[in-house]
Amino acid sequence: MDDDIKKLVEEIYFITGYDFRSYRPETFQRRISLRMMDTKCSTYQDYLIFLKNHPAEREPLVNSVTIKVSHFFRNPLVFEVLYNEVLPKVITSKMSDKTPQLRIWFAGCAGGEEVYSTAILIRELENKRFPGLKAFLLATDIDRQALEFARAGIYNKAALTEVKKGYLDKYFQVEGKYYKVNKWIQEIVSFGYYDLVAAKVPSPPSGLFTNYDLIFCRNVLMYYNEPVNQQIFKRLLGCLNNPGYIILGEAESLLPNAINRLQEVYPKLRIYKNHHT
Ligand SMILES: C[S@@+](CC[C@H](N)C(=O)[O-])C[C@H]1O[C@@H](n2cnc3c(N)ncnc32)[C@H](O)[C@@H]1O
Fold first, then answer.
1. 108: CA distance to ligand 1 center in Å?
2. Among 24, 57, 117, 201, whose Cα sits 20 to 30 Å from the Cα of 178?
């Protein structure tokens, strides 16, 4: 990392507690320039002074550095395969459990688009193939504003272009120009703050963060350098059931510490399955 950027990142950590030390420098630099333009600061030093004097700048800073572009059914083929193959297989394999409950974790859920898309598919499967299906979907992020937005579940048309008309009618209420996800899908989803990189969290984590049948961690690894991504993988693997699946973003791939544990079952779709032991 370039020395000036390194210093800036350290100072930001000191002022705000936000830890961008393991971010990819190019991504960080690009995003911070946007904040500098918006706040009319021409040097890193000016920006640090601005940040110290304006606590309200913290939120836009974290928003800008952690890009949150998403939409419903992003990479539709992944959701097709989920609906037709992965979810039915997982659900069937759990049928012999005493109290079968499907557990899915969305690590880096942004505005909730991905978790609600999956919740729709689960309700459809419950309706058509698995009556009485129980599911728990946990969606976490480090961006509290994104979590608030996700909890509200209100979206504009642009986020919904991949949503089938039948699903729009069934799972959304129209509110003026917006669409609000209905209670039926909201009630199986819980949102919470969780930092995948924070050092304090035990690995493998306990309690809430155990026994997941599926873990989505799409378009999150791209922020970080390889050592941090290795840690993230370790954490995710510690929370995954066997059998279980991890789903990454389109441009992401497995790191060496995960290659022995996971097998790519749907090439190009970044859907990986835990090896049976
Ligand atoms: C580009 S969005 C991806 C959203 C969704 N997973 C998708 O693929 O459509 C990445 C999200 O990861 C979150 N994120 C980045 N670093 C994180 C961390 N250390 N722990 C948890 N979430 C993180 C960001 O705040 C952002 O909401």
1. 3
2. 57
- Distance from the CA of 87 to the center of ligand 1, in angstroms? 23
Residuewise pLDDT in 10s, the chain (277 residues) = 678 888 999 999 988 888 888 888 888 888 899 999 999 999 999 999 999 999 999 988 988 887 777 899 999 999 999 999 999 999 999 888 777 899 999 999 999 999 999 999 999 999 999 999 999 999 999 888 899 999 999 999 999 999 999 999 999 999 999 999 999 999 999 999 998 987 655 444 567 878 899 999 999 998 888 888 998 998 899 899 988 999 999 988 888 777 888 989 988 899 999 875 5
* Residue-by-residue DSSP string for 132-169: T--EEEEEEES-HHHHHHHHHTEE-GGGGTTS-HHHHH
Domain boundaries, the chain: 3-65, 76-274
Pocket of ligand 1 (CB under 6 A): 66-70, 74, 108-110, 114, 141-143, 146, 195-197, 218-220, 223, 249
Sign of the dihedral through C-alpha 14, 15, 19, 22: negative
- Output the CATH code of domain 76-274: 3.40.50.150
H or E, element range at 4: helix 3-16
